[in-house]
Amino acid sequence: MDTAFVFDLDGTLIDSVYQHVLAWQEALDAEGIELSAWRIHRKIGMSGGLFTNMLVRETGLDIDQELLDRLRARHADAYRRQSGRLRALPGSRELLAHLTGSGIPWTIATSGRMETAAPALEVLGIDLEKIKVVTRDQVKYAKPDPDLFLTAAQRLGVDIQSTIVVGDSIWDTLAAQRARALSVGLLCGGYGADELQRAGAFRVYEDPADLLRHLDEVGGRR
C-alpha cells in the first residue's frame, strides 16, 4: 500500500494563522462585534458554518446570512492586505520537493476559499496546473467534516486509508479521523501536542522541517 500525503495550508505549510486571526478580528470589529483574538485562533481551520455557530454562542448575536457575507468579504480584504507578510514555514518547500522527487503523491486541502488561499499558494510556488489543490469552494462541507480530505485522495487516485493527513489544528485531525486517514500533527499553528494527540494525531512534529527529518517514521519513503 503506497503512502500519499495531504497537507493543510495555513499554519501547516504557511505561517499565516495569526494573519487570519487579525483579519477576522478586523472584520468583526468593523461590524461592532467584540471577540478576543484567542477565541478566534481556536476556531481557525474549521468550516464557516461552525465558525458562525461559535459566533452565535459566544456573542449571543442574531447573525444572518447578509452579515456573514459581509464578514467573509471583510476578512478576505483584510487578509489580502497582509499577504505580503506571509512566509513559508521552515522546511515546507524542501518537504514538498522531497516528496515530488521521491515519487510520493501529495496535494493540499484547505478550508480556506481560493480568494484567501491563493497568496499562500503563491508563496509556496504551487503550480495549480500540476497540483490538484482542494479548497472550500470545491466541497459541500469543510473541517471537521471529512470532505476536503476525501476529495483530495480521490483526485490523487489513492486510497484514503493509505493517506497521511498533515495539519496543525484539532480540526485537521478530527476530519482525518472521520475520513479514515492517518493524521500527523504539527505544532507550528499554535495547538499543543496533547491536544493534537487527543484529537487523533498518531505523530506530532514541530514543523515541516522536523517532519522531513522523521519522514520515514510515517511511511514517507519509496
Number of helices: 10
> Count of DSSP E strands?
7
Please state the average pLDDT score: 90
Radius of gyration: 17 Å
- Order of the strands making up the biggest sheet: 4-1-5-6-7
| Secondary-structure element string | EEHHHHEHEHHEHEHEH
Quote the distance from N terminus to C terminus.
11 Å
Low-confidence stretches: none
Which class do the helix and strand fractions yield?
alpha/beta
Task: Tell me roughly what share of residues is in helical segments.
Answer: 40-55%
Question: How is the main sheet built?
Answer: 5 strands, parallel
Question: What percentage of amino acids are in beta strands?
Answer: 5-15%
Global outline: globular
Describe the structure.
The model has no long low-confidence stretch (mean pLDDT 90). The protein is of the alpha/beta class and 222 residues long. Helix 8 runs parallel beside helix 9. Helices cover 46% and strands 11% of the residues.
SSE blueprint and pairings:
Blueprint: E1 4-7, E2 14-15, H1 17-30, H2 37-41, H3 48-59, H4 65-81, E3 87-88, H5 92-101, E4 106-108, H6 114-124, H7 147-156, E5 163-167, H8 170-179, E6 182-186, H9 193-199, E7 203-205, H10 208-213
Parallel strand pairs: 1-4, 1-5, 5-6, 6-7
Antiparallel strand pairs: 2-3
